[in-house]
């Protein structure tokens, strides 16, 4: 009996030491991501754009001449944003199973209030309009709705696509390309594995009614957000690399996504680098030589999400630039991300350099918020969603 007791005790100690080492190496920087906001950021930021012009001592650091204010707050885990046909802002709130409309009737830069557009949904994420019809991507489906622009209400929900349910990555993002086709991004079910469902770790494309759905590009572990380039009309997508192989690998990426291309996951990362932790075979090494490399690489575990090209209405020095929201790390010993980064490009879209555009969400005592999506209005104002503090910020550039 003592022998078995000893063996059991040894196993418990071994597992405890292993688990403690795992936590220390991989999750010790998770505090800012998983803890409640260190403070209420909305109490430290101006309530209107006009008020913001007179204040400089703010928790968020922005370039000179720009202002930041609170457009809406107390929204829960606010994620994807889009404009409805009348200019109201729609935002998905996955944790509450709903999509909301935020109106600003008096155009003072502050939402008048939130109207629930659709509720009782299965972790809704992607939202898009096409020819006046509202599309919402839930975790297991894409559905279309008749949309009442005046009342901000939906009716006649109709499922047009089934999507793989569950998995490590639960967001489902949709958007319509210049070709009028519907694009759907589904992340991987795991950190690193061979997927049984080809729709995972991939972007699919379908007709607007959901018909003729097929894989557009694969090997994209978790391309949560995508948009189309003003340079040549091609799709650009942010993609998160795998976890648990180091603080500084693999890089996060921005990819130019083209039909039929494979971007390497789970066998490769970055610029065709073989993930030997996953598969050390020669076959995998040969495969990695054939995959599409990323357009831009960035610090590992920054968690890139929303991206948007800066419009022509911004000052000249900001032209040919891409803004990316970095949600922030959860498994890096020293937290990183929690900011908006500007990628400077040349007039053909080639990468030149990167710099922080807005920072300050990450503090010594934790995170004030986690930026998710970035969206411009027709005047060049920038809206940023934050699913940690439940806030949507309004950033006004100079001379607007």
Features:
400 residues; mainly beta; Neuraminidase; 4-stranded antiparallel β-sheet; 28 strands; globular; disordered N terminus
Protein topology:
Blueprint (H helix, E strand, L loop, with lengths): L1 H26 L3 H4 L14 H4 L14 E6 L8 E3 L5 E5 L4 E6 L9 E6 L8 E4 L2 E6 L2 E8 L4 E10 L9 E5 L5 E5 L15 E5 L7 E5 L6 E4 L6 E5 L12 E6 L10 E2 L3 E2 L7 H7 L7 E3 L5 E6 L11 E6 L12 E7 L5 E8 L3 E2 L2 E2 L3 E6 L5 E5 L4 E6 L4
Antiparallel strand pairs: 1-28, 2-3, 3-4, 4-5, 6-7, 7-8, 8-9, 10-11, 11-12, 12-13, 14-15, 15-16, 16-19, 17-18, 20-21, 21-22, 22-23, 24-25, 26-27, 27-28
Concise description?
With 400 residues, the protein is mainly beta. The chain has a single domain (35-396), classed as TolB, C-terminal domain (Neuraminidase, 6 Propeller).
Written account of the structure:
- It is a single chain.
- With 400 residues, the protein is mostly beta strands.
- The protein has one domain: 6 Propeller (Neuraminidase).
- Helices cover 10% and strands 36% of the residues.
- The chain is built from four helices and 28 strands.
- A four-stranded antiparallel β-sheet has the order 1-28-27-26. Strands 2-3-4-5 form a four-stranded antiparallel β-sheet, with no helix packed on it. A four-stranded antiparallel β-sheet has the order 6-7-8-9, with no helix packed on it.
- A hairpin with a 2-residue loop joins strand 6 and strand 7.
- The longest helix has 26 residues.
- The radius of gyration is 22 Å and the shape is globular.
- The N terminus is likely disordered.
